[in-house]
Amino acid sequence: MTAGLVLAGFVAFLLVAVFFDATRRKAPNAMVVAGALGALAALALNLNPVELTAARAALGGLLALALLLPFYGLGSMAAGDVKLGAVLGLWLGPQLMLATWLGANLLALLHALLVLSLSALRHRAPMPPPGPTDARSPGRKIPLAAYMSIVALAFTLWRHLPVPP
Fold first, then answer.
1. Distance between CA atoms of 83 and 27, rounded to whole angstroms?
2. Full domain range(s) for residue 118
3. Which value, in Å, is the radius of gyration of the alpha carbons in the chain?
4. d(CA 88, CA 107)
5. Is the pLDDT of residue 137 over 50?
6. Cα distance between residue 115 and residue 93, in whole Å
7. What total number of domains does the chain contain?
């Protein structure tokens, strides 16, 4: 039962992250801290949903930072995405964090292509040339934290839901 509560808490954290990033393009610090404390508590109680050791969880958090910090430094990602990614790394470990990052970037690419295509159709003009976008400019943000959370949620549910015969 306790493991089920930890899993439910992680799923709730992911859903809250999706909500905030999809609607406000924010990952509030209180939410990120709560997620980190939840991950640490799950590790301390040996109830992590993906059965990680503390070392694997730390490696997952460090991998997330290594993957995301360069993009933040270039101005193409917000700090909330980096913080949420590090927390997801604590929950998921390095393998699932890498898969989550790849899946989220695929969703972000599809998002960008859809936005550019709709903009070109709406203005009947050629698509603008590709180039870096500033994650801090309003109206041009891709909800990467939401996409990371959606992919992490899919992996988590896939791992824990019963498979029909």
1. 8
2. 2-160
3. 17
4. 17
5. no
6. 32
7. 1
Tokens 């990680």 — which residue? 52
Take residue 10 and report the two structure tokens written for it: 């992680």
* Angle subtended by helix axes 2-24 and 79-123, to nearest 10: 50
**Across the chain, what does the average pLDDT equal?**
89
The gap between the terminal CA atoms of the chain, to the nearest Å, is 25
| 135 confidence band (pLDDT: 50, 70, 90) | very low
Is residue 142 a contact partner of residue 108, using CB atoms and an 8 Å limit?
Answer: yes
**Is residue 101 situated within a structural domain?**
yes
- Residues 67, 72, 73, 74, Cα dihedral to 10°: 100
- Identify whether 131 is part of a domain: yes
Q: Range with the lowest mean pLDDT among 9-23, 28-42, 68-82, 131-145?
A: 131-145
Domain contains 7: yes
Q: Which residue has the tokens 């029909």?
A: 164
Query: Is residue 165 situated within a structural domain?
Result: no
